[in-house]
């Protein structure tokens, strides 16, 4: 290969990357748009490809299945809170819970609910939801709690995994069972109740301690 051919080859590869990323973003946007009018169960790879103006093979270069596309489309929207230098861990967790409830009472809550429901009969969907969505957020929450334990904001003996379940469990319970609303009153009261437990785990006996 001479210099001219090598340059042309490099240029082609360089130009190809933005087009591939543009296709990926088009697929995610198409998925979000389609889910406004259809369910996760009824959504198909074919309709996503048509809406995005790409081939099915292009989709499969990025994702192994429909569930993974849907999760990545939602994952980009639903917030994950990280600790800013000016914030306490309590403030970061409060902000994250308020934003999460706000998103879950809208269309993305319906999508998450449908993914969990479909995952009960399809292990592949459940694994995708757990690995690509839930565990990413749980890792952030675990890091926040561990930081709070290291600085003395939370009790050092606090059981971090159980604390994560206590933080997010009520949100998913209301989302899935719908016995009470995911409203502003709930989103602001929940962090206050949870932080009482995180700051003073002894009031619940030894259950919150490792």
UniProtKB/TrEMBL annotation:
Question: What is the protein name stated in its UniProt record?
Answer: HTH tetR-type domain-containing protein
What GO molecular function annotation could you give as one example from this UniProt entry? transcription cis-regulatory region binding
- Enumerate composition-biased segments (Low complexity): 1-13
Q: Which residues bind DNA?
A: 44-63
Q: Can you give the residue ranges of the HTH tetR-type domain?
A: 21-81
Keyword Transcription regulation listed? The answer is: yes
Keyword Transcription in annotation: yes
Which key words are in the record? DNA-binding, Transcription, Transcription regulation
Name the PANTHER family for this protein. Answer: HTH-TYPE TRANSCRIPTIONAL REGULATOR RUTR, TETR-FAMILY TRANSCRIPTIONAL REGULATOR
Q: Where is this region: Disordered?
A: 1-21
Q: Which domain of life is it from?
A: Bacteria
* Species per Swiss-Prot/TrEMBL record: Candidatus Entotheonella gemina
């Amino acid at each position: 290969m001479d210099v001219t051919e090598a340059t042309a080859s490099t240029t082609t590869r360089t130009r190809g990357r933005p087009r591939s990323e543009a296709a990926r973003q088009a697929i995610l946007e198409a998925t979000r748009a389609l889910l406004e009018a259809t369910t996760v169960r009824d959504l198909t790879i074919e309709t996503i490809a048509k809406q995005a103006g790409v081939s099915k093979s292009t989709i499969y270069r990025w994702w192994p299945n429909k569930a993974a596309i849907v999760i990545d489309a939602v994952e980009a929207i639903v917030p994950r809170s990280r600790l800013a230098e000016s914030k306490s861990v309590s403030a970061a967790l409060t902000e994250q819970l308020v934003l999460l409830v706000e998103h879950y009472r809208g269309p993305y809550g319906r999508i998450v609910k449908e993914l969990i429901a479909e995952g009960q009969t399809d292990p592949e969907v459940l694994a995708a939801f757990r690995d690509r969505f839930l565990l990413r957020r749980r890792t952030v929450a675990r890091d926040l709690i561990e930081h709070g334990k290291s600085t003395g904001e939370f009790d050092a003996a606090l059981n971090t995994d159980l604390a994560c379940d206590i933080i997010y469990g009520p949100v998913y319970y209301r989302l899935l069972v719908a016995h009470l609303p995911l409203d502003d009153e709930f989103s602001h009261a929940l962090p206050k109740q949870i932080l009482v437990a995180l700051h003073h785990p002894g009031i619940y006996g030894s259950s919150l301690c490792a």
